[in-house]
Amino acid sequence: MRISLTAGHIVVEATLADNQPARDLAALLPLTVRMRDLYGREKLGPLPRALAPGASPQHTYEVGDIAYWAPDNELAFFYRHDGRTIPDPGIVILGRIESGVEAFHAHDATLEVTVKAIA
User: Fold this and answer.
1) What is the pLDDT of residues 24-62, one digit of tens each?
2) What is the assigned CATH class of domain 2-117?
3) Which of 1, 8, 43, 62 has CA 20 to 30 A from 103's CA?
4) pLDDT by residue (tens digit) across 60-100?
């Protein structure tokens, strides 16, 4: 599924992964998430509920990854790599931003991001 991420006047497109947590995220759309900056590498914000299990967590990420941090039911967009790994229990990759992810780095520490399905 293709999605758009809108933060102010910036719109980037992404593709959701083919896994159960990503399908569960898609069922929540459209969705606006208030996000904060974490470690100068990612924007992170709370989802309204936990996502369904069904994908293996991992401890690494790539710039452009859309991920789920299950302990706090949070959605993350990785815009920069700092060489660190993700602590236990790891993240579940939900999708990938194809281009424009650097726009998230340029924003203030907090921002609202609206996530919508692309028809």
Assistant:
1) 999 999 999 999 999 999 999 999 999 999 999 999 999
2) mainly beta
3) 1
4) 999 999 999 999 999 999 999 999 999 999 999 999 998 88
Give the DSSP H/E element, type plus range, for residue 32.
strand 31-38
Q: Give the global pTM.
A: 0.94
Summary count for the chain: helices (H), strands (E): 2, 8
Count Cβ atoms below 10 Å from residue 25 Cβ, excluding itself: 25
Distance (Å, whole) CA 110 – CA 42: 11
Residues in Cβ contact with 4 at an 8 Å cutoff, skipping those fewer than 6 apart: 11, 12, 13, 14, 115, 116, 118
With tokens 């967009």, the residue in question is 77
Measured CA to CA, the distance from residue 76 to residue 87 in angstroms comes to 14
